[in-house]
Amino acid sequence: MRNEIDVDEANGVESYLKHLGFETTLVRTGGGNYLIAVGAREIDIRAVGHLPGVIDVHRVSDTYKLVSRKWKVGHSEIKVADGISIGGSAFTIIAGPCAIESESQMDSILEHLASEGISLIRGGAFKPRTSPYSFQGLGLEGLQMLASLARKYQIKVVSEVISPSHVASLYDHIDVFQVGTRNMQNFQLLHELGKVDKPVLLKRGMSSTLEELLQSAEYIFSSGNERLILCERGIRTFERSYRNTLDLNAIPVLKDKSHLPVIVDPSHGIGIRRFVTPLALAAVMAGADGLLVEVHGAPELALSDGAQSLNFQESSALIRSVQQVHQLRLKLGKASVHDSTQETEASN
Ligand code: PEP
Ligand code: MN
């Protein structure tokens, strides 16, 4: 719909579609206005296109609509802050510890990341741990501490929110809200994040299909927030040799189904430090827009996920290799990496 569409025009289009037997939902985000009409009836969509207030009409057969690539040509670039975005031509690395543990820990990690030119730090303050006896995170105080340290380095903060009731109190200290694998279908949380004007990094549920992931993303978009980043972080399979099975297939397939950027978390994806870098490089070649990597000054002392966290030396080596492989991907060009993407675009 037109950006400045007035209430009468919107009502007019809605009642036209309702009259034809469609259920309608009007969605207003910071990026635009959308009217979703769901119904089985075959109509000539060109007639809708002529109604006042309508810019464009698309038929989207997927169960998810707004996050589908069927209506949008090209991929979305999600702006985090001036000069920092995910999903554009640059490759974005988000690095940092699993959990915020102390001021000195975070300061040394920030210093390391700043020296490597990384502009986004990750660090959990509310940790959804499998065991109630494991370290649960430093909570709001830890996050406030990270936010004020990160400001000094001009680095933006990515951190997990686990409850809809926390969103408002964390808002000032987070630049990108992370939704963890265990909360991918916490629909109240997704709804609450739909009301926020900051990007959301949505992790795939460990037992979720790509269609379920995209429907969860649709919850946030249809609640009003279209600044979304999808994250593949490994799924649960029958294989027990590693923590999770990183589903590299998900990268090209998600990018074919959705216009949203896709990043990859190789740390949780395999759970074994020495294999994190090769998987990160594979993710780059498979077309990922970025990485979420766990880095700790002293992984052997980490309070959570030390076994999959890189030390600074390993982190520096990963960053260098990732940049080289990303350059290689660009050189090989769209022809080899994004063949399927182009095909779908052409047939729309
Ligand atoms: C994390 O990023 O530290 C985390 C808890 O991830 P996930 O939700 O993917 O397990
Ligand atoms: Mn972790």
How would you describe what is shown here?
This protein is α/β, with parallel strands linked by helices and 348 residues long. The chain is 38% helix and 15% strand. It contains 12 helices and 12 strands. The strands form 3 sheets. The protein has an 8-stranded parallel β-barrel, surrounded by 5 helices. A hairpin with a 4-residue loop joins strand 1 (23-28) and strand 2. Helix 6 (187-193) packs across helix 7 (210-222). 43% of the residues are buried. Bound molecules: phosphoenolpyruvate and manganese (II) ion (MN).
Structural class: alpha/beta
> What small molecules does the structure contain?
phosphoenolpyruvate, manganese (II) ion
What is the tally of helical segments? 12
Our estimate of the beta-strand percent is: 15-25%
General shape: globular
User: Would you list the SSEs in sequence order as H and E?
Assistant: HEEHEEEHEHEHEHEHEHEHHEHH
Q: What spatial order of strands do you see in the largest sheet?
A: 5-6-7-8-9-10-11-12
Cα-based radius of gyration, to the nearest Å: 21 Å
Largest sheet geometry: 8 strands, parallel, barrel
Number of distinct beta strands? 12
Share of helix, binned: 25-40%
Notable characteristics:
globular; binds manganese (II) ion; alpha/beta; two-stranded antiparallel ribbon; single chain; 348 residues; 8-stranded parallel β-barrel; disordered C terminus; binds phosphoenolpyruvate; 12 helices
